[in-house]
């Protein structure tokens, strides 16, 4: 028998971390994870399943994800040598830190923003420089750039639009950041399909720009597919730290079919965008709720009542949203993913009941 002190062996940087925690419900309406509420259309599903039948599961997947990169390349007009496929874009966030940071180096991002930047950085022993967003959930670049350059920050992560506030930061401020920051600016465009706004065209003039996208928010969350767009020399460096076969064959096939048949998802995206307008209108009618404008597939809202109670009440009635109230800037705030029309109606109904 062996019984050593395992906790003594675990690194301090890991011990002090908290695992990414998501509440979940078996039954009910899931508006907590910014997924696409619609399953793949029958048309897309058939194309995917036809290819699954011919799949050699005994073989490793294509390590270069050639077909998927070609699908992406055709759709967005970027050469394949600038693309890297990730097992979710989360993986690409980590590989950027691996390529640019030694332990103790600094990375930066606004606060509040996507939690994985901090979790990944701390797990790798990096310093985190956060900068607060103003009351419009935006930031000014000039004072920031000075501080970032002084601390030799290696990377700034910009969620565009920002999760969980929902807005795209001011374009001119990001532009200043790209032009004056002496490090890498990562534009995390996980919600690009809902915002229609991108910095892709800036890549030809600025070699410190990296763009991340994800298929998780548009229908393939279960398959973990994200991609990064890099200057080609950087893509080569990312590939050195990427684990071999990080993207499995099933994910590659489904993602390739989605890219090559994008019209089937575009309809879903369009209806989510229509529902976004309706949901914001409906939320605006509720006195005790402040809903913030959104360029994404979710809406941040604040209640003037006890947010924790409202969250629990919604959950007890089968509607799961993301509770953000623990964050000092997000007291009594929740984030609701835009669902199908029926789901959104139920959400509004339960919310109205919960606040009474
Ligand atoms: C959801 C999300 C991601 C992660 O996407 P995956 O591809 O599922 O790993 C990345 N960035 C932001 C801002 C997100 O909200």
Protein architecture, described:
This protein has 356 residues and is of the alpha/beta class. It folds into two domains: 22-40 and 264-355, Alpha-Beta Complex (Aspartate Aminotransferase, domain 1), CATH 3.90.1150.10; 42-261, Type I PLP-dependent aspartate aminotransferase-like (Major domain) (Aspartate Aminotransferase, domain 2). Helix content is 42%, strand content 16%. It has 15 helices and twelve strands. The protein has helices at 6-9, 12-15, 42-53, 66-76, 89-100, 116-123, 141-150, 171-180, 192-195, 216-220, 232-241, 249-260, 263-284, 307-316, 341-354; strands at 29-31, 83-86, 106-111, 127-132, 155-159, 184-188, 209-214, 226-229, 289-291, 298-303, 319-323, 333-337. The strands form two sheets. Strands 2-8-7-6-5-3-4 form a seven-stranded mixed β-sheet, sandwiched between helices. Helix 3 packs across helix 12 and helix 5 (89-100) packs across helix 6 (116-123). The termini are far apart. The relative contact order is 0.16. Pyridoxal-5'-phosphate is lined by residues 34, 88-90, 114, 159, 163, 188, 190, 214, 216, 226.
Summarize the structure.
By secondary structure, the chain is an alpha/beta fold.
